[in-house]
Each structure stands twice: as C-alpha cells, then as structure tokens.
Amino acid sequence: MTEEEQIAAVTQTGYAIQYIASPSEAVQIAAVTQTGYAIQYIASPSEAVQMAAATQTGYAIKYIASPSEAVQMAAVTQDGYAIQSIANPSEAVQLAAVTQDGYAIQSIANPSEAVQLAAVTQNGYAIQYIANPSEAVQLAAVSQNGRAIQYIANPSEAVQLAALKVGFYTKEVKASTIIKRLQAMGYDLDCVVNFFTMLEHGDFTLVGIL
C-alpha cells in the first residue's frame, strides 16, 4: 500500500493506522487528525503528532507518555476535563483547563485563587468544588450566576447583594440584607413591602435596582 493509499485509509477512519506497519509521520498525522484516539496505536509519536491528536481530542492525552506543556495546553484547551489525565499540571495548564470548562477544577488538587477565580468566572456553579473559597471568589461566582450562592456557606452581605444584582432572589439572600440596602437607598417601609410582594409574584427582579 502506498503512502497516499495509507493516508486515504486513515482519513476515512483514523483507527485504521493500527493495521499499517511503520506508518510515516504524514500518515500518523492524518490518522490523529481524523480521531485523536488513534494515537494509542502509534509507537513513539512525535511532538507534531501528539499536538495534532490533543488538538483533535483533548482526552487523547491519556495515551501520550510524558506530554510537553504545549501538548497539555492543546489538550485542555480542547477539553478542560482532559486535565484529569495530566500528572502535576502547571498553573498555566490549570488556568487553560478551567477557562475552557470551570467544572474542570474538581480534578485539580489545591487550586490557587487565580485558578479558582478563572473557574467561577467561566461557570459560577464551579464554586461547589472549591473548599473555603475567599470572598473574592464567591463574588466572582455569584456575579457570573446568582444561583451559585446556594453553594456558599454563610455568604456575606456583599455576596448576597452581588447575587441580587444579577437577578437572583433566594433563601440564601437574607431579607434583612435587602431591607437594609433598600432603606439605605431612601425607600420607605411601604416601598420595601411592595418590593417583596412583587418579588414573590415574580413581577420583576432586582436587576438595576440594587
């Protein structure tokens, strides 16, 4: 089989490379470009082949021994969860992973605050996988998604207000916080009561008010 025929075969289905003896790099790249998982059938793939595989399918990195940081970055940029298959990823790789998918933080041991912030900025709900998040992280989470406050134990008044500002009213936001804020803005008691009545009936949110 000529190289051209081999390329045609793996372009159709990358897994066909397992039946080709000593495929050239061009054939290998064609195979992993079709499916990154084909790299598991390639002995000692070059950096270029690894990059092509990781770029096509982030999870293909599980079949790459000692991938360079560049390959790791390509993998997590394609799929943040690929970080599960990376031993001791650098902070740069961690940041790339959670920027692609905030939930990837659950696969990172002891993430720095910078990584935590990147994760909740991408997806506020990611805070549920962060132990003892700082107020800055909490604020970033509820600013991205007010509902993230349900995963925060004893949120400060500032965090509660931040959740309200994006239109989320929940039991985690204390009524006293809302009342205090409205009164500080000059609303009288009757207005405050009306606010709560309309909130209960879903007539409007507090976006733009608080």
Summarize the structure.
The protein is mainly α.
Written description of the protein model:
- This protein is an all-alpha fold.
- It has a domain at 1-87.
- The chain contains ten helices and no strands.
- The longest helix is centred in the C-terminal third of the chain and has 12 residues, at 189-200.
- It starts with a helix and ends in a 10-residue tail after the last helix.
- Residues 202-210 have low confidence and may be disordered.
As a percent range, the share of strand residues is: under 5%
The H/E string reads HHHHHHHHHH
The total count of helices amounts to 10
Portion of residues within helices: 40-55%
Largest sheet: none
Counted beta strands:
0
**Unreliable sequence segments:** 202-210
Distance between the termini: 71 Å
Report the C-alpha radius of gyration, rounded.
25 Å
Which class best fits the helix and strand makeup? mainly alpha
Sum up the overall morphology in one term: elongated
- Average of the residue pLDDT scores: 88
Name some characteristics of this structure.
single chain, 210 residues, mainly alpha, elongated, disordered C terminus
